[in-house]
Q: What sequence folds into this?
């Protein structure tokens, strides 16, 4: 049996992540289908740009559609509650101030970003950028205290095995680094596309980047992965040890690292 208090939080975060992906795709498809309705009066672009192929900016979809904007604001606030609710294990760092607080601020900034009109000023982009920086900095996997000090090891955890209810094994740090690196790569690709598009003389500065492009998929992957990283950083590994596990660890010595999910101990 799995520890229900932990499993519930893992399940909730995973469920919310899937809901976010599905809602994003629905909002993007609905916005593309209604492109001609918004392209001139709302976005200030040319009608023929709707006929081009490719995806659109995720923020454009979430700020154009009323239901999507409300969803984005409420989703961020609900995520803050889950971060606060996340457990803190004795073997992990005390993340209330060093990890949870900045990530809650980042989620609050994301919520505020969708409360402003991205088509009237640059406030939305500034808020999204600030929230993204906080999100990536405070989900950084970290390095050992022997290697670096300060913010570079604030997220550091000793490597250990992850196994959920008898499912396959995962390495905590390998998985974390893989997700973080994947998010960074997609962020760099998206920013490169944005810069290239705005440097194009055929696209006015106030209308760049281009309305539609498949490069926007890198934006989707970046934000989806970053949200998954927040849950991974504050929920997956901050698991409380049972009394039996503590006794077993004392017997085996400090060099053993373990994680307990349910009635089993994994090393």
A:
């Amino acid at each position: 049996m799995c520890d229900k208090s932990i499993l519930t939080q893992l399940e909730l975060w995973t469920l919310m992540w899937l809901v976010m992906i599905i809602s994003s795709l629905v909002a993007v498809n609905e916005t593309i289908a209604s492109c001609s309705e918004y392209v001139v009066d709302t976005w200030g672009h040319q009608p023929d740009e709707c006929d081009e192929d490719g995806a659109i900016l995720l923020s454009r979809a979430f700020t154009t559609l009323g239901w999507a904007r409300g969803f984005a604001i409420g989703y961020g606030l609900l995520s803050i509650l889950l971060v606060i609710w996340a457990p803190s294990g004795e073997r992990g760092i005390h993340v209330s101030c060093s990890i949870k607080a900045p990530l809650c601020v980042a989620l609050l900034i994301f919520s505020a970003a969708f409360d402003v009109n991205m088509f009237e000023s640059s406030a939305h982009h500034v808020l999204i950028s600030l929230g993204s920086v906080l999100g990536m900095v405070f989900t950084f996997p970290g390095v050992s205290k022997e290697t670096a000090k300060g913010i570079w090891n604030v997220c550091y955890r000793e490597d250990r095995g992850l196994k959920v209810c008898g499912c396959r094994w995962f390495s905590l740090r390998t998985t974390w680094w893989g997700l973080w690196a994947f998010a960074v790569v997609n962020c760099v690709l998206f920013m490169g596309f944005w810069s290239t598009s705005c440097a194009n003389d055929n696209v006015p500065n106030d209308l760049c980047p281009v309305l539609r492009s498949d490069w926007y998929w890198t934006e989707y992957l970046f934000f989806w992965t970053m949200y998954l990283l927040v849950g991974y950083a504050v929920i997956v590994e901050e698991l409380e040890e049972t009394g039996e596990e503590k006794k077993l660890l004392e017997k085996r010595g400090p060099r053993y690292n373990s994680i307990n999910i349910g009635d089993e101990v994994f090393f």
